[in-house]
Give the backbone structure.
Amino acid sequence: MGAALTPLKPGSTVGILGGGQLGRMLALAASRLGLKTHVYADEAGSACAVTNHATIAPFDDLDRLRAFADTVDVVTYEFENVPLQAVHVVSQRVPVRPGARALEVSQERLAEKRYIAGLGIPVAPFAPVSATEDFAAALAVTGTPAILKTCRLGYDGKGQVRVASPDELGAAFEAVGGLPCVLEGRIAFRSEVSVLLVRGLDGSVAFYDLPRNEHDNGILCRSTVPSGLPQAELAAARAIGAAIAEGIDYVGVLAAELFWTGDPARPLVVNEIAPRVHNSGHWTMDACWVSQFENHIRAIAGWPLGSTDRHSDAVMENLIGPEIGRWHELAALPATALHVYDKGEAPAGRKMGHFNRLSRRSEG
Amino acid sequence: MGAALTPLKPGSTVGILGGGQLGRMLALAASRLGLKTHVYADEAGSACAVTNHATIAPFDDLDRLRAFADTVDVVTYEFENVPLQAVHVVSQRVPVRPGARALEVSQERLAEKRYIAGLGIPVAPFAPVSATEDFAAALAVTGTPAILKTCRLGYDGKGQVRVASPDELGAAFEAVGGLPCVLEGRIAFRSEVSVLLVRGLDGSVAFYDLPRNEHDNGILCRSTVPSGLPQAELAAARAIGAAIAEGIDYVGVLAAELFWTGDPARPLVVNEIAPRVHNSGHWTMDACWVSQFENHIRAIAGWPLGSTDRHSDAVMENLIGPEIGRWHELAALPATALHVYDKGEAPAGRKMGHFNRLSRRSEG
C-alpha cells in the first residue's frame, strides 16, 4: 500500500512490531476505530490471536520485514528492543512511528541518560562500566548504594544488580556477564510515578493523570490514580515528559518513570523512559474515555488525539505468573474490570493479565 | 472440545452465530477476557476481521454447523433470525446461550406478543393478519392508526407499513407481499426507552440504566442516558425485563423496547424484545466499567456478571450509511468515543459505526 496518507482512513492497516500483551491491546484498540492490524513478531504471542494478519519471523529477516512493510500503512512497535536495523528497513517503505530516534535513546541506557540529562532534566548520578578499570571512576560519581544495570535488554528488573558497598561491584559485574553497563547512584524517594503522554503527528500533546507505581522484585505490581503528588510536582512532571517527547519529535504514547524525592532542590528524577504504551497506563483502559492504546493508535495514524480525561479513580494490579488463577474471584468483584492476555501457560514472572479496581472520580 | 464446563476458563472458545457489528463487538469483548472466538456467518462480515476463526457457510449447512460446534465451548448468536434448526443442531453438541426458546419467542412477532401478554405485561393491541379475510376482525381489535408488521425477518423498520385508516390495510398487506403479519394498534407515547439486562447462568440479574431512544425512518439514531424516566417507571421497566427473561430462563443480555405512554393506567407498553446485545446499549461501552458485550460474554461463559454501573452520562448516536464520512470530525470532539465497524462500503441505511458523547455522571 506504500506510504501512508495522513490521517489513515478506517480500513487502513497498522503494522505492529512485537506480539506480546501490549501489541494485543494495541490491536484491540485499533479494531475499535475500524483499523486493521498486522503483527510482526519473532514468536507467536498473545497479540497474534487478535490481529488481522501475523508474520512470525526473526527481526533480522529483512525480506520478510520488507514484505510486511508492503502490506501496512504505518508501523509502530510495542517494545523498545526492536533491532534498529529492522526499523530502518521498514521505514524505507512506510512511516514508522515513533521513529528510530526514539529507539536509539531508549534501548541503550547510557544514550538514554545522556539524552535526558542533556535536556537539563535530573537523572540519578550515572557512569559507564564496561571493564573493571572503570570501577573506581564510576563509584566516585555514584557512591553507594548503587545499582549496576546492563546498557541493553533490561526490563522488569532483569539485568540489574544492587551494589550496597564498593566491594560488591566486582561480583555484580560478573553477575551481569561483564556486559557494558551503567552504574547508577540509588535515589531515595517517597514514591515512584510515571508521566504518560501522547503526542500527535501535528505536535499536539495530551497528558493522562500520573499513576503512583509500586514494584515487587523489579516488576510493576500496582499503579494508583490519583497519585497524591502535589500540584506543583504534577506540573513539573508533565513539563519533563513534554521536553523528552519534543526533543525527539516523538509520535505516540510515551512513558517516563520518575522518582518523587521530596527534596525541594530536585523533587523529580527520571528513572527511565519507554517509547511505547506502558504497563503503568493500563488503568486508562477503564478509567478514561480513550485509553492509552487507542491514543497511541490515533497518534501514529495521524488522527486527532482523543480525550485523556480520567472519569474514574483506579487502582491497577498486575497478575503475574500463577496469580492469573485468581481470574474467577476477580471477575466477581464489584466495580472491577479484568483483562486476561490469553497466554496459555503461566510461568513465574510472566505478565498474564491485570485488573482495574474503579471508583467515582475524586478531586485529586 | 465437547460440552462446556462452567465457568469457561480463559483460553476457551466462544462460538458466535452471525458476523455483523454486534458479533464484532462481542468478539472484541471476549478477547479482553482472554477468551477466543469462532464466528459462523453466511457471509464475511465485520466480525470476521477480529475473530480467531471464521466459518463462512449457509445456516442450513448442517455438516459445517456440526464442525463449528466441535471447535467451541459455548455458542451464542448476534441476531434473532438464526434459523432454529441451526441452533438445534449446534445445541446437540455444545450449549447454546441464550437457548432456542429465546429465539422461538423473538423471531416470530405473534409468538413474541403472546408470550409477553401471557406474562401480564402490556403490549399494543394486536391481531394476526394472514389473509384479507382477517382484516375486519384485526381492525376491530387494533383500531387505526395501526402498523402492519410481518411476523418474521423485520428489523430497522423493514417489513412494516403504517395503516392510517381501515381502507389502507389492503395496500399495506400487498406492500409486505401478503406474508403472515401482525396488525398492531399504534401507541401514543412520550418517549421510547429500552430495558437492558444481563442474566447469568445462575439466574442472577443485573440492569443497565435505561436509555431513551430516538428513531429516524425506523432505525435507531440516538440513545440518551439517563432517560429522564421517573423512578417508579424505571422500577416497573426493570420488573418487566426481569419477568420476560425469567420466563424463558434466559442467559445473556436481553433488550426490551418500551413505550412510555404517560398514561397512569398503563405507563409502559412493550414494543419488542431482542434476545441479544442491542444497539441501544452501545453507550455502555464507554459509560460503564463493563459493557453489554462483555457482560453477555460473561453470562454465556458462566462467569460472574460484571458491574453494570454507569460512571458517565452518555448520548450514543449511530453513523448510518454515508454518515461514517464524519469519522475525522467526530474523532476530534472532546469527551467522545468513536467506534467504526470497518464495513468497507457505506450503502444508505447500513449501520457503519457509532459514537458516544460522554459527560460526568448526573444524578438521573
Observations:
- Residues 23 and 281 of chain A are 14 Å apart (CA to CA).
- The longest strand of chain A covers residues 351-360.
- Chain A is about 25% helix and 30% strand.
